[in-house]
Amino acid sequence: MADPYVPQDFESTWQQRWLDDGLYEIDNDDPRPSFYVLSMYPYPSGPAHIGHVRNYTFGDLLVRFRTMNGDGVLSPIGFDSFGLPAENAALKSGTHPREHTDANIETLSASLKRIGAVYDWRRMVKSHDPEYMRWTQWIFIKFYEAGLVFQQESPVNWCPGCQTVLANEQVIDGLCERSDDPVERRNMVQWFYKITDYAQELLDDLDALDWPERVKIMQRNWIGRSEGAEFGLPVADASGNARTDVDPVMVYTTRPDTSFGMTFAVMSPEHPRVAELTAPEQADAVAAFVAAVAGRSE
């Protein structure tokens, strides 16, 4: 009878051997053909779960395949460890955010090593490390000096309990996913990057990539470039006549040819001119509607 397959009996020996030999450590002057594999850095929430195993197995397969084909593969590891999740977890546990986060990184690192994922651990980065943050600050300053960042008011999801802005994915049924506080929609001044200045260049370069077409479509949709026309709609008085004392409402459409059939336009409740254009007798009803939809995500 064949001996039973018990990977725990031998995996740890070889995993330690790979670490001791630096099998997947790559120096900058490595003579082999260069290949770079970057798996999305995880948030260190604790031990690896099935999502970690799935994601990092894919990257691990590619690293091993290219290494066995003679490439010098740079595969770094890092942790998306800075921000609100770490602060909230520290508040619940009563520990300093750095202590809590560093402990979780140790736990998750051990899990990744245990499943056999291979990285150049010398190149580990942690986004809560001041040595890492200084470079994010440096690149922001460079963008600012080049005129590629700007500030403007924009609607955001605001959690009054956490006192922070939330992504749409962090709003569950109108509530903050962490504190369960009702989320408000409010306008706040935000920083933006002028990514749209490079939209056409990004779209053109996608055609040259040897990527699956479905991935290219996802990228094109994410870039979101569209062609259309912007024009002004006159504001009508109670009799339906265009008012000359009020600026037109500017609208954008990708189908300007259909504008001749328009009978009305709908204004977002977050639009800065809502209060200005609301009839006095409808002010209370409009204010109630704006408040009612303030907790909804887009």
Question: Could you give me the name of the CATH homologous superfamily of the domain at 8-126?
Answer: HUPs
Give the overall form: elongated
Largest sheet: 3 strands, antiparallel
Rounded to an integer, what's the Rg over CA atoms? 27 Å
Q: What is the terminal-to-terminal distance?
A: 62 Å
* CATH topology value of the domain at 8-126: Rossmann fold
Strand content: 15-25%
Under the CATH scheme, which architecture of the domain at 8-126 would be assigned? 3-Layer(aba) Sandwich
Query: Topology as H/E string?
Result: HEHEEHHEHEEEEEHHEEHH
Q: How helical, in percent, are the residues?
A: 25-40%
Number of strands: 11
The oligomeric state is single chain
Low-confidence stretches: none
Widest β-sheet, arrangement of strands: 6-5-9
Q: What is the CATH top level name of the domain at 8-126?
A: Alpha Beta
Helix/sheet category: alpha/beta
Overall mean pLDDT stands at: 89
Tally of DSSP helical segments: 9
